[in-house]
Amino acid sequence: MTIHAEGLVAIAVFYLLILFVGIWAAWKNKHSGEAEGTDRSETIMVGGRDIGLFVGGFTMTATWVGGGYINGTAEYVYLPDYGLAWAQAPFGYALSLVVGGLFFAKPMRSRGYVTMLDPFQQIYGKRMGGLLFIPAFMGEIFWSAAILSALGATLSVIVDMNIKMSVVISALIAIFYTLVGGLYSVAYTDVVQLFCIFIGLWISVPFALTNAAVSDITVTAVKRVYQSPWRGSIKKEDTWMWVDNFCLLMLGGIPWQVYFQRVLSASSATYAQVLSFLAAFGCLVMAVPSVLIGAIGASTDWNKTSYGAEAPKDKDEAAMILPIVLQHLCPPFVSFFGLGAVSAAVMSSADSSILSASSMFARNIYQLAFRQSASDREIVWVMRITIFVFGGLATLMALSTGTVYGLWYLSSDLVYVIIFPQLLSVLFVKGTNTYGSVAAYLFGLVLRIGGGEPYLYLPPFIYYPGWTTEQRKHQDSDEMEEIVIQRFPFKTVSMLASFFGNFVFSYLAKYLFESGKISHKYDFLDAVVSSRNGEIMDKTTLVTRGNNIGLSELAPVKPRLSVTLAAAFTRRDTLPEETVEEEEEEFSPDFSHNEE
Predict the structure, then answer these.
(1) DSSP characters for 340-354?
(2) Global pTM?
(3) How much is the average pLDDT of 479-485?
(4) What sign does the CA torsion over 454, 460, 465, 467 have?
(5) What subunit structure does UniProt give (predicted)?
(6) What is the CATH number of the domain that holds 116?
(7) Which residue, 9, 13, 43, 193, could crosslink 348 as a Cys pair with Cβ 3.0–4.6 Å?
């Protein structure tokens, strides 16, 4: 096996840069929040809620812009019969950030939540919060595993080194600085990550464009030269599938802890909105070099390059078109600089998902569901242990399974059809309860799983209108298999069914219990009857008819966050109107006081 010394040096330089920045960020902010009395665990999760505009803008952009984003965009532009028309991630995730900023960032940040699951446990209880943790956790872990798997393949192109070794080293570096610095390390390495991607790719693009083997990309966009035009097209029969996938990206990109991790770390609710809008613009800007590289790959006569006579698509290497273009169409020094930067960026992308999964587990599962009396030091150690365990789990999956992308596709669909409609309900729909939430969970799960998953060779048991079959080569056996393709927008229909199911079953349960058609003793989830006892709930106390009863389901939030009774963990419909008005006036975010 040949080791490319220049490539190895480039990788080492960029990895050391990322590691240095991560450790420096942890050291720089090691006393952050101490003056205000902020818990250390909360500082690790949301960075003391003092992330500024510059770092915040970069880290919010890095919510989605990473190794998977740039590699995936280039791949779809390059693939015949797909092209730019099917490269939906740039616009889909940009609109996701816009929608998140307009409607979700302000209520989540204003109420002082620490993780995305907090409002679910507030409204639906700790058991339902635990159920909703499952798809959220799966999404984060499978995403990390997919990133690390892609990284191993990329490094094998650059330096021809052992894939397993490269994945393990990359994961250990990301886990180490995340252990040390938490969100601060993640945020500051995100700044370096985006600079690496931007500079590394833009240095490489001019050299690749002017390579003798590359035809004019403006011609190949509309005319067949070496393959179908890279502009792509959407067939009439695939229109609803395209719409379904776009809605998945735009709306399904919101209910992720990696996004709300950044939202909740902003210094104010207004800042959280501004950062979301800046990140949407950043998503589009960062996609441009990837689109160009995909177009270059589709415009190349590979027989004239060092790659060989067969094109990458014919070798089932379309997913690696970006590193292949940089390796074979650019001078060595440019190639190694670009590939080294991209590899470091891919490695850095895994850290936020690992931190997100450990944050949700430590707070919403360990602390709120099982150990309400846990000390801050205990929570910090739980986070550190789970960062290591979850990082190891993602690494193991990246090394041992060839279906990691299929698992991530399925889990991201479950985030869309299960968590998004429930997040919509807890934030904007008055009166939903745990019974509706359970029904919505089951509706979304059954309708989505019922549609099957071609990437996992999971056959459907629900055949939606317009379904068809096609022959596809099995990735392990290379045998041709018949799979079912669902052209009906069943993912979005599943999401809508989940949303309306929550609403309908919540009010049905409310009517049945309140009317006496079902005895109150059967309200085993305490979701309807108990809510009519005049309870006023905040994070620490349940006040009922003058008696203070300790509430262990929700953890305290520091007074400095201005999270007061009506503004935070409160059933607002039980408060007197004047109290609500006073609290809202007191809690109005003042942007000017938070600017640095």
Answers:
(1) HHHHHHHHHHHHHHH
(2) 0.84
(3) 83
(4) positive
(5) Homooligomerizes at cell surface. Interacts with SEC14L1; may regulate SLC5A7.
(6) 1.20.1730.10
(7) 193
